Amino acid sequence: LVPRMRSFGTTIFASMSALAAERGAINLGQGFPDTDGPPEVLEAAVRAIRSGHNQYPPGRGIAPLRQAIATHQQHHYGLAYDPDTQVLVTAGATEALTAAILALCDLGDEVVVLEPTYDSYTAAIVMARAVPRPVRLRHPSDTESAYRLDEDDLRAVLTERTRLVVVNTPHNPTGHVLTDAELDIVARVAVEHDLLVLTDEVYEHLLFDGRTHRPLATWPGMFERTVQVSSAGKTFSTTGWKIGWVCSTPELVTAVTTTKQFLTYVSGGPFQWAVAEGLALPDERFAQLGARMQAQRDLLVPGLVSAGMAVHPSEGTYFVTADIAPLGYHDAVDFCWRLPDLCGVVAVPSSVFYADPAGVGSLVRFAFCKRPEVLTEAAERLAGLS
Ligand code: PMP
Ligand code: GLN
């Protein structure tokens, strides 16, 4: 393995899922649902296979899916993308993000990422021989109730080599939904410094407590400098299908297509047909997906609170972060490896999402994308830790 990739090892998600399987513990580590998505979407995939959509789809994705993505962007956010030139279907958001980073970043270019950082961004930046520049979100504290991007913190990491900012909202692993004020900061800085922005919006339909998703591409001056990425995996609880997409200007989509075609070329033929149907579901069905995830959050969080953890607010996604320091534990890595023995649950230490984990050693990420009975059982087991 080349030296620059040696620190990456096996992803924490795979390690923790293996631990859960080995111990028969409840897996609140890797973020994947334990039930399948809307039945009509599943049926559409079966129909697509039976009706012979089993060969290579076109390089940019089948026309009905590109049209459905464009219609979804228009309907939910008022964003106008031409399905022929401004939409690209990818092998999940992971390939979309990697292909975009490889297409847009050159040797030594600097890429700003919000920290904690979803693991694949840093790996893709390093594969591109670019340099990650994390800006740490301010953490909930005595004076701040939620995570927060601070403008001075963002400005402090910029240099003349800064090329791209990666923005993930709703944010994995914190569950933070960036506020309009935080998105204003990104937009202001991006326009002022003429930066490109890559937005990871895979949790766009999983927001809680009445929040709504507002893509950064809708901000003034942002449409032409934003590469929007999303995926069907989270929205439709079909993480194994790996259907994602990119929306941007024709020039930027062509750039991303150039690298993408040599990563996978194409993927997921029959699933593309099914996701096209899923994206056209009525608004109430999307609202139900978010409401169900919120109800699941509300089954798990009381267990964390009863255990004595300090729980950070989860405003969206599949995840909630909790501080185990009040329980007397200070090393979340050690805690997570012992958690199956302590109470039959698996979770992920948040330190893996930080380049420098100073000050975050006692934070743990729990996933609540699980059936209610599983979450109730997990909450009881965790409450027993106190
Ligand atoms: N971005 C974030 C923030 C994620 O949580 C995930 C899924 N774990 C991905 C990207 C990858 O999405 P996909 O499975 O569609 O590649
Ligand atoms: N996105 C998922 C998570 O955060 C995991 C995906 C993966 O295993 N790469 O848990």
TrEMBL record:
One of its GO terms (molecular function) is kynurenine-oxoglutarate transaminase activity. PANTHER family: FI04487P (PTHR43807:SF20). One of its GO terms (cellular component) is cytoplasm. CDD domains: AAT_like. The keyword ATP-binding does not apply. Keywords: Aminotransferase, Pyridoxal phosphate, Transferase. Its cofactor is pyridoxal 5'-phosphate. This is N-succinyldiaminopimelate aminotransferase. Belongs to the class-I pyridoxal-phosphate-dependent aminotransferase family. Residues 25-382 form the Aminotransferase class I/classII large domain. It comes from the Bacteria. NCBIfam families: PRK07777.1.
